[in-house]
Input
Amino acid sequence: MKSKIINMGERLKDADDRMLETLFRADPIADDGFSERIVRKIRRRLWVRRLAVPFAAAIGAAVALEPLVTLAAMLIDVVAALPNEVVLASTGWIPPLPTIALGGLLFAALMFVLRMFEE
Output
């Protein structure tokens, strides 16, 4: 049995539609590789943009490494100067390390899943 549904978009074509169809059916214009050079430039710029932020972050981390080590050493000296009762009393509320690691992994997995849903 033949379908009685008529696709009006295929049946009704004006002069502009016919002209566009003939243009798209035509052979591409020879440009001596101009299009390929432009595409290569665009792709190169995309890669530069993709790598610029991680590269800048790595340079910033390298610059900040020495002050961070100095700060950590200073904090260790401050904690060592405190009486033992103060240090032991203040660490009672901190959860154990495996719990912190599990929470961090769950948070990272949640962020990954949310990013996948965005795409």
User: Anything to note?
Assistant: DSSP finds five helices and no strands in the chain. Residues 34-81 form the longest helix (48 residues).
